[in-house]
Q: What sequence folds into this?
């Protein structure tokens, strides 16, 4: 997984523990336009990571900072999801084509790393569509996102890591 630093000025100090991951899609054709959007302080939008279709991972905001990706949001009746989440954007311009294998591989690797690092429960890996308020305001990552396969893969990898640690 290739990680490239591409800092955004759109963040604030984090005051809460990280216990959630939010998956988004950019609704754009390429990473360049999304990164340009994140780099403008006028837009007041960012995410911690952006993953291009070729699998390249751009880090836009340090994990210890609060990125501005979720907007008005709530998870399990706790508002302001930005305050306790990591935001990951996927370059995707429509909801008809499947996400490319390289992009999904990078997403799975990154999310597995974050789940292990922050001990995030699988039911706290959500889409923007699941947390945006009012409900229905956002639809990403969209109907083409393979939730079942994605979460199954993350769960299997984390279980293998845990079993590997206990077998040492």
A:
């Amino acid at each position: 997984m290739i990680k490239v630093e591409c800092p955004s000025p759109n963040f604030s100090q984090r005051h809460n523990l990280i216990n959630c991951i939010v998956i988004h899609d950019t609704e754009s054709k390429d990473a360049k336009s999304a990164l340009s959007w994140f780099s403008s302080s006028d837009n007041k939008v960012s995410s911690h990571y952006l993953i291009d279709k070729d699998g390249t991972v751009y880090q836009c905001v340090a994990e210890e900072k609060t990125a501005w990706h979720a907007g008005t949001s709530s998870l399990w009746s706790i508002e302001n999801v930005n305050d306790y989440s990591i935001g990951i954007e996927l370059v995707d311009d429509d909801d008809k084509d499947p996400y490319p294998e390289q992009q999904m591989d990078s997403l799975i690797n990154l999310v597995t790393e974050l789940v292990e690092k922050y001990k995030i429960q699988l039911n706290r890996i959500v889409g923007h569509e699941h947390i945006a308020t009012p409900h229905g305001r956002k639809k990403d990552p969209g109907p083409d996102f393979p939730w079942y396969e994605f979460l199954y893969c993350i769960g299997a990898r984390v279980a293998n890591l845990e079993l590997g640690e206990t077998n040492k």
